Amino acid sequence: MNVKSGQHHPGTGNGAGIGGGDDGDGGTITIYGGDITANGPTDSNCGENGAGIGGGYCGAVGTITINGGTITAYSRDGAGIGGGDGGNITINGGTITSTKVNQGQGARIGGGCDAAPGTITIGGGNITTIGGYGAGIGGGKSNTEGGKVTINGGVIDASGSYGIGSGESGSSVATTLGYTAATRDAISIKASSYAGTVTLKQQFKNEIQNFQPGVVDNLGFLNTYTLTAWIPVVTIKGMTGSFNDKIKLNYYFDDIPQFLHADQKAYVTLTNESTGEGITLLIKDAEYVTGKGYKFSLPLVAKEARDTITAKVFDGQGGAAVIRGNLRDNDYTDTGVQSTLMQYLDWLAANGETDKEKALGTAAKDYCTAAQIYFNYHADDLLGNRGNAEQLCCRPFRHTAIGRQHSRHLGDAGIRQHASAVPGLQGCRTVEPHLHDRRTEC
């Protein structure tokens, strides 16, 4: 049965508003959208449990899929959406409201009175339930078998006497809460109570604490509070250039939450915006450099010194981490942290701690400019470099030997930008590209 819109009421006896008749299974029901109201019996006793949408009295729910729409569904002792008895309920979207009638012995979404919830999967939508003796989402009163509730997205408000899980005197219902990269930023789960086991697949937080993945030992920390995704926040500490074996642009991140380190798939991307090429580096494999942070490097060739390199941080599902400057006041989450090797060399030539460091910065700038001209790599762009450009403002890390690694520290103010003259071809000494070997020896 495919439903797009309409006002629906029970047929006869204890049948469902949409689905099975008295003693009938719900079959396969798919709702794509529209404005729908469906109700089962509202004056029955426990056991007369036709659903608003799903199975009739003594009938199994079957398979229900809701992809959208504005839906209101209710029944007194049957489920608002579901049984009868358990089946498979999948909610991908829509605005769904199901409230109790009288004592509400059936679940609002799940099993009817004495009925198991079956398998309930919620991946999206705005869902409001008010449970009675049956749960808002889960089992009805005295549900004789357990079931599964999985929530991976959506905005959920399950209030009433029983929120999510088992109904009164019911068998344990296993609830799993998680999110995907697509649902992470918007997910919100609030329940008056949880009954049964609750397992978190990802990190969550509420008004009183943060939660690591795993089984929640004390459900009291969840009841009545709103769970949202615990989105990682990292700090960009600085960037450096390396010139010993290969030319590299290095980014340093710190304050990386432990759960990102434990996430075997969490990663950093470094992308050359000019070529579209880049690399993906796992956080778990990153080298920690004392005083700087975790190091992530992109090899470059000399001609790419003016190419913008963008750094972003992601969890293992592809959700972007929030990136802050050192004072946590600048947000680079959307754009990523962007810099060029030439910006670092400009800084080194002007601010190196010794004359040798300044000379190294100047020589490297000249060499990279010559390489860009020699290979005709965006050479026309060099004419525009006499003007102003956005550059990162900083003070240096402590250095080691000249030519191994020179670094630029972002300071207590985090990453800040200001207009600064960038030298173009005028005033630059010409360095032939074959001096690469000499450059490596510095």
Strand content: 35-45%
Mean pLDDT: 80
E-strand count: 38
Give the overall silhouette. Answer: elongated
In which range does the helix fraction lie? under 10%
Q: Would you identify the regions where 5 or more consecutive residues have pLDDT less than 50?
A: 385-442
User: Main sheet, how many strands, which sense, barrel?
Assistant: 10 strands, mixed
Number of helical runs?
Answer: 4
| Biggest β-sheet: strands ordered side by side in the sheet | 2-5-8-11-14-17-20-26-23-24
Characterization of the model:
It is a single chain. With 442 residues, the chain is mostly beta strands. 10% of the residues lie in helices and 36% in strands. The protein contains four helices and 38 strands. The strands form six sheets. The chain has a ten-stranded mixed sheet with strand order 2-5-8-11-14-17-20-26-23-24, with no helix packed on it. Strands 1-4-7-10-13-16-19-22-25 form a nine-stranded mixed sheet, with no helix packed on it. A hairpin with a 3-residue loop joins strand 31 and strand 32 (293-299). Helix 2 runs antiparallel to helix 3 (355-374). The chain is elongated, with a radius of gyration of 30 Å. The model is unreliable at 385-442 (pLDDT under 50).
Layout: helices, strands, pairs:
Elements: E1 2-3, E2 6-8, E3 18-19, E4 28-31, E5 35-39, E6 53-54, E7 63-66, E8 70-74, E9 81-82, E10 87-91, E11 95-99, E12 109-110, E13 118-122, E14 126-131, E15 137-138, E16 148-151, E17 155-160, E18 164-165, E19 174-177, E20 188-191, E21 194-195, E22 197-200, E23 204-205, E24 210-211, E25 214-215, E26 226-229, E27 233-242, E28 248-254, H1 258-262, E29 267-272, E30 278-282, E31 287-289, E32 293-299, E33 309-314, E34 322-324, E35 337-339, H2 341-351, H3 355-374, E36 388-393, E37 405-409, E38 416-421, H4 436-441
Parallel strand pairs: 1-4, 2-5, 3-6, 4-7, 5-8, 6-9, 7-10, 8-11, 9-12, 10-13, 11-14, 12-15, 13-16, 14-17, 15-18, 16-19, 17-20, 18-21, 19-22, 27-34
Antiparallel strand pairs: 20-26, 22-25, 23-24, 23-26, 27-28, 27-37, 28-32, 29-30, 29-33, 31-32, 33-35, 36-38
Helix pairs in contact: 2-3
